[in-house]
C-alpha cells in the first residue's frame, strides 16, 4: 500500500488543539482511499526555546528533509519574542526547502456569516500567490547609532530577478491551470522607489509570455479596498512576501473568519518537502480553551493530500468540510457565531467523510 511519511509540528497555542482534528480526518480519509500516512511528531515550539535556547535542534532541517510533507500548526507565543520564534522555525523551513510559493485560497464557505452584504458561496473565490522566500522578509539591516540622537533602524528588502520571475510565472501558470486566465499584481511602485518598480517591470515582462492571460495591477492600498468592495473581480492575485501576507488575512477576513483559511508552502520542483499550515497563528487569546476552529488546519491537510497526488482524498475532505458547515445543525465554533468546541466541529467533519 502507498505510504507517506508526514512530519507533524503542532507548534504553539491552538496549534496543539487543532492539529489532532486534522490528523483524525487524515486517518479516516486514508482508510477510505487505501493509503497509509505515517505521522512523525516533532514537539518543537516556544517551550523548546525556553528550555534549550533553540526552536529546533541543529539538525532539525535535516530531520524534516526525510519526510514527504510537513504539516504545521502554528508557531509563536508571548513567552518568546516573535522574531526569535518565527526566524527559528517557520521561516527557516520555508527557506531551506525553497518553498517559494505560498498558495492561499480565499473562499466564502457555506454556513459562515459573511461580513459583506448579500454575498453567497461562489461570490468570493480566488487565490493568493504569495512570494515566500525573499522580499521584505529579511535579516539584512540593523539598528544604528544606538543611544545617540541619530538612533534608528534599517531593514532591507531583496527582490532578485530569479525569485521574482519564478513566483510570477507560478501565478500565471496557476491561472491557466484553473482555467481562470486573469492575474492581478499587488504593487506599491508610487511609494517604494526601487523594489516595486522592479516588480512591476518583471510582471510586465513575464506577462508577455502569457498572451492568453489578462493582467491587472493595483497599488496595495486600493487593492485592499477592492478586496472589500468588489471581491468578485479577482481570480489569482500575486504579491510579494509582505503584501501577500497582509492580503491573505484580509481575504479570509471578508469571508467571515480567518480561522478557516489554509496555506500551502510549496516547493514546485519537489526537490524538498512542502509544508501545509493554517493561515492563522497560535491565538494566545483563546489557547487552552479548546474553542479554536479546526477548519483551517483540516483544509491545509486537504491541500497536502492534493500535493501528494491523493486528489480523491483531498476532494473528500473538502466536501466533508462544506457538508458539515452547510448543515444548519452542525456545531460552530465561536469565531463563526456558535458555541461549539474544536473537537465537536472536528468530529462533525470527520463523520461527513464518506466514500
Ligand atoms: P492569530 O492568527 O494567532 O490570532 C488573531 C485572532 O484570530 C485572535 O483573536 C485569535 O483568537 C483568532 N483566531 C486565530 N485562529 C483562530 C482559530 N483557529 N479559531 C478561532 N479564532 C482564531 O494572530 P496573532 O494574534 O497576530 O499571532 C499570535 C501568534 O501567532 C504570534 O506569535 C504570531 O507571530 C504567530 N503567528 C504564527 C503563524 C504561523 O505559525 N504560521 C501565523 C500567524 C501568526
Ligand atoms: C503567516 C504568518 C507568518 C508570515 C509570520 C508568523 C512570520 O503571519 O504565515 O502568514 O508572516 O509569513
Ligand atoms: Mn500572516
TrEMBL record:
> Domain Isopropylmalate dehydrogenase-like: where?
5-349
Extract the coiled-coil ranges from the record.
none
Organism superkingdom: Bacteria
Enzyme Commission (EC) number: 1.1.1.83, 1.1.1.93, 4.1.1.73
Which pathway is this protein engaged in?
Answer: Carbohydrate acid metabolism; tartrate degradation; 2-hydroxy-3-oxosuccinate from meso-tartrate: step 1/1; Carbohydrate acid metabolism; tartrate degradation; D-glycerate from L-tartrate: step 1/1; Carbohydrate acid metabolism; tartrate degradation; 2-hydroxy-3-oxosuccinate from L-tartrate: step 1/1
State its cofactor.
Mn(2+); Mg(2+); K(+)
Q: What UniProt keywords are attached to this protein's entry?
A: Lyase, Manganese, Metal-binding, NAD, Oxidoreductase
Catalyzed reactions:
(2R,3R)-tartrate + NAD(+) = 2-hydroxy-3-oxosuccinate + NADH + H(+); (R)-malate + NAD(+) = pyruvate + CO2 + NADH; (2R,3S)-tartrate + NAD(+) = 2-hydroxy-3-oxosuccinate + NADH + H(+); (2R,3R)-tartrate + H(+) = (R)-glycerate + CO2
Recall the GO molecular function terms of this protein's record. D-malate dehydrogenase (decarboxylating) (NAD+) activity; magnesium ion binding; NAD binding; tartrate decarboxylase activity; tartrate dehydrogenase activity
Quick check: keyword GTP-binding in the entry?
Answer: no
PROSITE patterns from the entry? IDH_IMDH
Question: What function does this protein fulfil?
Answer: Has multiple catalytic activities. Apart from catalyzing the oxidation of (+)-tartrate to oxaloglycolate, also converts meso-tartrate to D-glycerate and catalyzes the oxidative decarboxylation of D-malate to pyruvate.
Q: What does the similarity note say?
A: Belongs to the isocitrate and isopropylmalate dehydrogenases family.
Which PANTHER family does the UniProt entry name for this protein? D-MALATE DEHYDROGENASE [DECARBOXYLATING]
Q: What is this protein called?
A: D-malate dehydrogenase [decarboxylating]
Please report the organism this UniProt entry assigns to the protein. Answer: Acetobacter tropicalis
Amino acid at each position: 500500500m502507498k505510504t507517506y511519511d508526514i512530519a507533524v509540528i503542532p507548534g504553539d497555542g491552538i496549534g496543539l488543539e487543532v492539529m489532532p482534528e486534522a490528523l483524525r480526518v487524515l486517518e479516516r480519509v486514508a482508510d477510505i482511499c487505501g493509503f497509509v500516512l505515517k505521522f512523525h511528531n516533532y514537539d518543537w515550539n516556544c517551550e523548546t526555546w525556553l528550555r534549550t535556547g533553540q526552536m529546533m535542534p541543529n539538525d532539525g532541517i535535516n530531520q524534516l528533509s526525510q519526510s514527504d510533507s510537513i504539516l504545521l500548526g502554528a508557531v509563536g507565543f508571548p513567552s518568546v519574542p516573535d522574531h526569535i520564534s518565527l526566524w527559528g522555525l517557520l521561516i527557516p523551513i520555508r527557506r531551506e526547502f525553497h518553498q517559494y510559493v505560498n498558495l492561499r485560497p480565499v473562499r466564502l464557505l457555506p454556513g459562515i456569516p459573511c461580513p459583506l452584504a448579500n454575498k453567497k458561496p461562489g461570490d468570493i473565490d480566488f487565490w493568493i500567490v504569495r512570494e515566500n522566500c525573499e522580499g521584505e522578509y529579511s535579516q539584512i539591516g540593523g539598528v544604528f547609532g544606538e543611544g545617540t540622537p541619530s538612533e534608528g533602524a534599517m531593514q532591507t528588502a531583496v527582490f532578485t530577478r530569479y525569485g521574482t520571475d519564478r513566483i510570477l510565472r507560478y501565478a500565471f501558470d496557476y491561472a491557466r491551470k484553473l482555467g481562470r486566465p486573469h492575474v492581478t499584481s499587488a504593487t506599491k511602485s508610487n511609494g517604494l522607489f526601487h523594489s516595486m518598480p522592479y516588480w512591476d517591470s518583471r510582471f510586465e515582462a513575464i506577462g508577455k509570455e502569457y498572451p492568453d492571460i489578462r493582467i491587472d495591477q493595483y497599488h496595495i492600498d486600493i487593492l485592499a479596498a477592492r478586496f472589500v468592495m468588489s471581491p468578485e473581480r479577482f481570480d489569482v492575485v500575486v504579491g510579494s512576501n509582505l503584501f501577500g501576507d497582509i492580503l491573505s488575512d484580509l481575504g479570509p477576513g471578508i469571508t467571515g473568519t480567518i480561522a478557516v483559511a489554509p496555506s500551502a508552502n510549496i516547493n514546485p520542483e519537489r526537490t524538498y518537502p512542502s509544508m501545509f499550515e493554517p493561515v492563522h497563528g497560535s491565538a494566545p487569546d483563546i489557547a487552552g480553551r479548546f474553542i479554536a476552529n479546526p477548519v483551517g488546519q483540516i483544509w491545509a491537510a486537504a491541500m497536502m493530500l492534493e500535493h501528494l497526488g491523493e486528489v480523491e482524498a483531498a476532494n473528500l475532505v473538502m466536501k466533508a468540510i462544506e457538508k458539515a458547515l452547510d448543515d444548519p445543525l452542525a456545531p460552530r465554533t465561536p469565531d463563526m457565531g456558535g458555541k461549539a468546541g474544536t473537537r465537536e466541529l472536528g468530529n462533525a467533519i470527520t463523520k461527513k467523510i464518506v466514500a
